[in-house]
Amino acid sequence: MARGVQPLFLECDRSQVITCWIGIAVYTAMNIWFGAWVVMNLDQAGSWPWLLVLTTLVALFVADVMSGVVHWATDTWFDEIMSERVISIAREHHLHPHHIVGYGVRDYIAYSAWPTMIMLGPIGMILTLLPTPSPVLFHVVWSMFIISTCMYFGTYAHRLGHKRSEWAIVRLMQRCHLLIDVRHHNVHHRDNHDVRYCVITGWANYVCDRIGFWRGLERIIHRLTGAVPRENDYVWFARYQPHSPRRGKYVIGPLGPDGKAVMTVVEANGGSADHPRGAVHS
Ligand SMILES: [Zn+2]
Ligand SMILES: [Zn+2]
To answer: What is the pLDDT of residues 186-235, one digit of tens each?
Structure first.
């Protein structure tokens, strides 16, 4: 654990430990499988090195988007009833951002392992088991290998957005915008925590935030399900930082029959027209 940092949810029970390690083991096996397939089919790479470079750059961008999807989803839609420890750690991260440096490698990898497997596993298995490889298939699987490998370090990269690295090579990569740095990621931790979700290179933040990608997805999901974005995050702020000048003032009532707290905003501070925080959520 980093000196002087006391994460709130470091302890985990046996089932949580087993879930972490199963995720890491299967995820590692999947990534090794993708890598082995690429090596076995190198003859399909073609004779255009620039195409491989282009594919790699696109894959790095998509990996950054994927890190943003995982971060955005946990910040926006889930609560600790759905996944107690994972979501509690995510909420803790907004209340005490520096606590991220106190978690260990198992938690860093496991956080990305399950979402990456769900997003890449089924399609990756189908593609790599096709009987006839082709150059197009090679570049797709190569991309999946790059994305999957980057996601391995996704949460660690997020950590680099909170603490200056002691490694010169990491600082050089940050200066070259190959990894996020503290200044870039700090913007996420201002105000509503609803921008700069991507935490590997940060490249995708410029695109996703500029085009309103996350707000667009939220509007669609809200219309389809009625769910309120960041509702659970607001509840945590109401509970633990009720008078935060950044978050407005909130009052939360007792837990309802569904186990969720009823929250009322008494003094809005920001928010959006689509999801005014003056509403009472349950
Ligand atoms: Zn966040
Ligand atoms: Zn952060």
So the answer is: 999 987 899 999 999 999 999 999 999 999 999 999 999 989 898 888 88
86-95: list long-range contacts, CB under 8 Å, 24+ apart. Answer: 86/111, 87/232, 88/8, 88/9, 89/7, 89/9, 91/232, 91/233, 91/236, 92/7, 92/8, 92/9, 94/189, 94/193, 94/233, 94/236, 94/237, 95/236, 95/237, 95/240, 95/241
Backbone angles phi, psi at 249, to 5 degrees: -115, 135
Residue that is written with structure tokens 């961008």 in the block:
61
The residue with tokens 């309120």 is 228
pLDDT tier at 256, thresholds 50, 70, 90: low
Find the 186 Cα to ligand 2 centroid distance in Å: 7
Determine contact, residues 266/251, Cβ cutoff 8 Å: yes
User: Which one of the ligands is nearest to 94 CA?
Assistant: 1
Of 6-15, 21-30, 42-51, give the range with the top mean pLDDT.
21-30
pLDDT greater than 80 at residue 266? no
| Helix or strand (DSSP H, E) at 67 | helix 49-76
How far is the centre of ligand 2, averaged over its atoms, from the C-alpha of 242 (Å)?
21
What is the C-alpha to C-alpha distance for residues 226 and 117, in angstroms, rounded to an integer? 28
Domain boundaries, the chain: 14-226, 228-282
- Ligand 2 centroid to residue 105 C-alpha, Å: 16
Paired strand residues for 281: 263
Q: Judge contact between 128 and 121, C-beta under 8 A.
A: no
Q: Give the residue among 212, 156, 211 at the shortest CA–CA distance from 185.
A: 156
d(CA 264, CA 71): 25
What confidence score (pLDDT) does residue 264 get? 56
pTM summary value: 0.84
Cα 159 to averaged position of ligand 1 atoms, centre (Å): 12
CA of 97 to the centre of ligand 2 (A): 6
